[in-house]
């Protein structure tokens, strides 16, 4: 055992001694979705399978990347140097990037594979890594999404922060001076609340931070309301708006669809859904065209396709935020969320939030 570790560490030192450098800049990002540039130099015998791994938190094991990109996606890779631009979302902890050498001779029948049976990249030859890259405010209120309650004059908003800070929603009919204030309840869940791997293992699990739930009330029907979430401690989101429910309207505008998934700018353990970008783009256009008419979205299952890799839920909620922070976004359970039919809602508080929201009622409205 000792000999093995000695050997391993001398291999790493040797690789670093080749002087490959990897740099990321900027080291601090302002807002979720900002780009970083990764720049590498001096790879002496580049391979088209050399790759950069994306890690968050930075102390993750080498094979617990959240995703990876082949350096050969950069046109200059054969020179052993190049750069890649990459948007990062605020995952409530810093990131680190590591490059590894990998070539075709290392792929054998026993190489681990992803869900599509493509070989997963080898972490045997670490060449270089960056310092940590972080966000200015890891508590920046994120993943805003709206939902109806069973009262016509209410609107629920949910958002996420890293820490268990008190959260609020401020709202009103005028963008200047949001007069209504409601304190949010906050919740979280643990690795042991997950029913199976990979979600309950250190590979698929990520700390979800705190989920804040606040209900705006006393809303006049069919009016555009402005709102903002957060607190002086966590910082505040930008001001968003929605059109309240109008019980007297003679039309209901609803966007109903099943399936979608999420798109991430890297490869990972699962296939992700590039097409979801277009779905969001067209829905956004349609909602903008509706102007001040109230509408809602019903996503009737097969929601994120995260399938146990939690950062894909973060990617999904970030991706839908431009819609879900403007119009109520309702979901129900599809087969990709229903792999454990006998399992109760976990954690228990989720049944209160989501328990009446799924299944038959929404499917009924699709087929009605
Ligand atoms: C962050 O914001 C500051 C000013 O608010 C700006 O000067 C800086 O360029 C921004 N950084 C990034 C990475 O966007
Ligand atoms: C990130 O870079 C891409 C092009 O590489 C650009 O289209 C996009 O607008 C940038 N995103 C931000 C938030 O600056
Ligand atoms: C994950 O869930 C499975 C199925 O319930 C269980 O057998 C396993 O022990 C769990 N693993 C961890 C690390 O909790």
Automatic annotation (TrEMBL):
<dbReference type="InterPro" id="IPR008963">
    <property type="entry name" value="Purple_acid_Pase-like_N"/>
</dbReference>
<dbReference type="GO" id="GO:0046872">
    <property type="term" value="F:metal ion binding"/>
</dbReference>
<feature type="domain" description="Purple acid phosphatase N-terminal">
    <location>
        <begin position="141"/>
        <end position="243"/>
    </location>
</feature>
<dbReference type="GO" id="GO:0005576">
    <property type="term" value="C:extracellular region"/>
</dbReference>
<feature type="signal peptide">
    <location>
        <begin position="1"/>
        <end position="19"/>
    </location>
</feature>
<keyword id="KW-0964">Secreted</keyword>
<dbReference type="InterPro" id="IPR029052">
    <property type="entry name" value="Metallo-depent_PP-like"/>
</dbReference>
<dbReference type="GO" id="GO:0003993">
    <property type="term" value="F:acid phosphatase activity"/>
</dbReference>
<keyword id="KW-0732">Signal</keyword>
<dbReference type="InterPro" id="IPR015914">
    <property type="entry name" value="PAPs_N"/>
</dbReference>
<protein>
    <recommendedName>
        <fullName>Purple acid phosphatase N-terminal domain-containing protein</fullName>
    </recommendedName>
</protein>
<dbReference type="Pfam" id="PF16656">
    <property type="entry name" value="Pur_ac_phosph_N"/>
</dbReference>
């Amino acid at each position: 055992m000792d000999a093995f570790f000695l050997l391993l560490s001398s291999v790493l030192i040797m690789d670093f001694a080749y002087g490959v450098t990897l740099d990321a800049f900027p080291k601090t990002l302002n807002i979720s979705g900002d780009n970083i540039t990764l720049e590498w130099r001096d790879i002496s015998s580049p391979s088209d399978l050399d790759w950069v791994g994306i890690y968050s938190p930075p102390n993750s094991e080498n094979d617990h990347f959240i995703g990876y990109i082949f350096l050969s996606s950069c046109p200059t890779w054969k020179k052993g140097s190049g750069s890649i631009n990459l948007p990062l979302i605020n995952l409530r902890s810093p990131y680190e990037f590591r490059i590894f050498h990998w070539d075709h001779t290392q792929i054998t029948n026993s190489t681990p594979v992803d869900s599509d049976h493509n070989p997963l990249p080898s972490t045997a030859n670490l060449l270089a890594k960056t310092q940590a890259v972080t966000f200015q405010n890891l508590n920046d209120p994120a993943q805003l999404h709206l939902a109806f309650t069973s009262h016509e004059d209410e609107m629920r908003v949910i958002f996420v922060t890293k820490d268990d800070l008190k959260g609020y929603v401020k709202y009103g009919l005028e963008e200047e001076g949001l007069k209504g204030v409601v304190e949010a309840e906050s919740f979280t869940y643990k690795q042991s609340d997950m029913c199976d791997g990979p979600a309950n293992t250190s590979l698929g699990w990520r700390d979800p931070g705190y989920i804040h739930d606040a209900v705006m009330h006393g809303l006049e029907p069919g009016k555009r309301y402005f709102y903002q979430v957060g607190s002086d401690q966590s910082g505040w989101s930008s001001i968003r708006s929605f059109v309240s429910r109008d019980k007297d309207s003679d039309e209901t505008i609803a966007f109903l669809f099943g399936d979608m998934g999420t798109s991430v700018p890297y490869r990972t353990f699962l296939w992700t859904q590039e097409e979801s970008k277009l779905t969001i783009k067209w829905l956004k256009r349609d909602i903008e065209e509706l102007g001040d008419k109230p509408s809602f979205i019903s996503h009737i299952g097969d929601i994120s396709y995260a399938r146990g890799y939690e950062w894909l839920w973060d990617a999904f909620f970030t991706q839908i935020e431009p819609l879900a922070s403007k119009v109520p976004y309702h979901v129900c359970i599809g087969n990709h969320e229903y792999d454990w039919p006998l399992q109760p809602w976990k954690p228990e508080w989720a049944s209160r939030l989501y328990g009446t929201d799924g299944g038959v009622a929404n499917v009924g409205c699709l087929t009605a």
